Amino acid sequence: xxxxxxxxxxxxxxxxxxxxxxxxxxxxxxxxxxxxxxxxxxxxxxxxxxxxxxxxxxxxxxxxxxxxxxxxxxxxxxxxxxxxxxxxxxxxxxxxxxxxxxxxxxxxxxxxxxxxxxxxxxxxxxxxxxxxxxxxxxxxxxxxxxxxxxxxxxxxxxxxxxxxxxxxxxxxxxxxxxxxxxxxxx
Length: 186
Fold this sequence. Notes:
By secondary structure, this protein is an alpha/beta fold. The chain has a single domain (about 5-180), classed as DHBP synthase, CATH 3.90.870.10. Helices cover about 30% and strands about 20% of the residues. It contains six helices and eight strands; from the N terminus they run H-E-E-H-E-H-E-H-E-H-E-H-E-E. The protein has helices at about 5-15, 40-45, 75-85, 100-105, 120-130, 150-155, and strands spanning about 20-25, 30, 55-60, 90-95, 110-115, 130-135, 160, 175-180. Helix 1 crosses helix 5. The protein is globular.
C-alpha cells in the first residue's frame, strides 16, 4: 500500500471511530465525520459555530454512493444533477423516505449533497464506504481557511486530525441548488 493510500485508510478508520477530521476540498478546508454519528456531527457544528438548523452538506465519491437519495427526482432532474458531477455543485435533494438524520438536514426537508471532483476527498469517501459530512472548517464568523497551518492555528485542539493535501482549483465554495425548484440557494 502506498503512503497516500495508507493515510487515506487511516483517516477513514478514524472517521469510522467517531473522530472529526479536517481535509482539503475544492475551494476551502472542510471538517468531516461519519454522518450517522450524531455526536461527531454535533462536534463539527460546535467547532464551526454553526446552528444545527442550518444543515450540513454530504460529500460523496460517486453517484452510486448517494443513488438512494435520487429517488424523488424526475428523469430530467436526475440527468441535470448527474451532468454537474463530479464538480462544485451541491444539490438540495428531497429526502422522501426520511433516510438522512435530522442533525444533517437541519431545518430542511431535504439534504444537501455533492459528488466531489477532489481526488483526496473522493478517495476518503471510497475508503470510508459512503458519503461524509462536509462542513466548513472555519468558524461561522471567519473567512474560509485555505491552508493546513490555519487549521492547526485555529482548530488544532478541537479536531482529531488533519488529512493533508492541496485544495482544488475552485475559488469559492460550491453552488447550492434546490433540485426540485432549480432555485440557487448559494
